Amino acid sequence: MAQICDMAQASAWLPLVRASAIGWVPIAQHRLPKNVCTKDDSNQDIYEKKAIINVSGQRFEVLTSSLNQYPHTLLGSDERDYFYDENSGEYYFDRDPEIFRHILTYYRCGHLHYPKKECVMQYEDELAYFRIASEALGDCCYEDYHDSKRENSERLLEKDPQPKRMLKCQRIFVTDFGRPSKTQSFLLLRLSFTT
């Protein structure tokens, strides 16, 4: 048993011995430098203030300087104080935390990423809520975003039942009135279907 214990101790020191043998500075000869500054120092600017943002129960931490770089956005402006909860010390938003992760990347890096698995309409709603322009989208995601927007627009046009209803009415009036777009009765009926 003692032999196993000795082997475990030897294996713990083995990397240090190897490091000394190849010329690295042994830890035992040089002490680690003292902490240059502590939180008790008068220079508090080194320890930057963090904002804790709670998005539907998921907490995110971000430097306030990152948020303040974009004063035209919701989180970069003083308007974010409206969402501050003094009891918890957090900013609370009842939004989608999965998409917010990408919004937070915008504040940290300066460009947006589009999550392919998310709904493009929901993504745009989140951008509008936080007042971030979609033009900040990174080059890597630009095509995917616009392809998703185009596909969504096409899908919405296919689902719109009103054009089919209008075509049926047009066929009926063509047989009764000739060219329906020219008659006054058809124009009146057309107005009633569109409103």
From TrEMBL:
Cellular compartments per GO CC: voltage-gated potassium channel complex
Pfam families named in the record: BTB_2, Shal-type
Q: Which residues form the BTB domain?
A: 49-148
Q: Which GO terms describe its biological process?
A: action potential; protein homooligomerization
The protein's topology relative to the membrane is:
Multi-pass membrane protein
The Gene Ontology terms for molecular function here are: A-type (transient outward) potassium channel activity
Domain of life, per the record? Eukaryota
> Where found, per UniProt?
Membrane
> What are the record keywords, sorted?
Ion channel, Ion transport, Membrane, Transmembrane, Transmembrane helix, Transport
Q: Which SMART domains match?
A: BTB (SM00225)
Cited PANTHER family? POTASSIUM VOLTAGE-GATED CHANNEL PROTEIN SHAL, VOLTAGE-GATED POTASSIUM CHANNEL
Query: Would you tell me the protein name for this molecule?
Result: BTB domain-containing protein
